[in-house]
Amino acid sequence: MQKLEPNFTGIKNLNEDLRAAAEVYILRRPNDVYDFLKKGPSAIALVSEAYERIREHFPQDEIFMEVLTDPGSPMEKELLISISTSLPPIDAIRKLDAFDDGWWLGASSGSPADICIKVEYR
User: Fold this and answer.
1) N or C, which end of the chain is more exposed by having fewer CB within 10 Å?
2) pLDDT tens for residues 49-101?
3) Which residue, 94, 101, 90, 2, is CA-closest to 52?
4) Considering only 11-15, 25-29, 39-43, 48-52, which range has the smallest mean pLDDT?
């Protein structure tokens, strides 16, 4: 498994960074994800580190990435990272809250990309 670079490596490495994302995340509608990240390539570093940080809290769970479009405003797109877990909901929410408070809220506050991380239950 190839690890994403912790910092955006420039336009010449964009396709390599996108391939690395596809290797660590399970992509839903991959072309939409690639288009989203190509339009906001600085988000690649954020999703790279997010993956590593998520693994600290959810080491065995599948992690999906997809782009959602607001039906009321098709120009508004959001990158959704979903942690698919079989943990009891109370435990999953506690872990997600610890992830949010420990890193995500601070790391994502300066990002121009609209990225959301949530848990989904199996």
Assistant:
1) N
2) 999 999 999 999 999 999 998 887 767 899 999 999 999 999 999 999 999 99
3) 2
4) 11-15
β-pair partners for 115: 79
pLDDT the model gives residue 1: 39
4, 50, 63, 1 alpha-carbon torsion, rounded to 10°: 20
Q: What is d(CA 35, CA 84) in angstroms, rounded to the nearest whole number?
A: 23
The three-state secondary structure class of 66 is: strand
* Confidence label for 3 from pLDDT (cuts 50, 70 and 90): very low
- The size of the chain, in residues, is 122
Query: Considering just the CA atoms, what is the radius of gyration of the chain in Å?
Result: 14
- Tokens 């997600």 locate to 96
The two tokens of residue 19 are 């391939």
The label of the residue with tokens 């992830």 reads 99
Two structure tokens written together for 34? 């690639």
Q: State the Cα–Cα distance between residues 50 and 21, nearest whole angstrom.
A: 11
Q: Letter for the amino acid at 115?
A: I
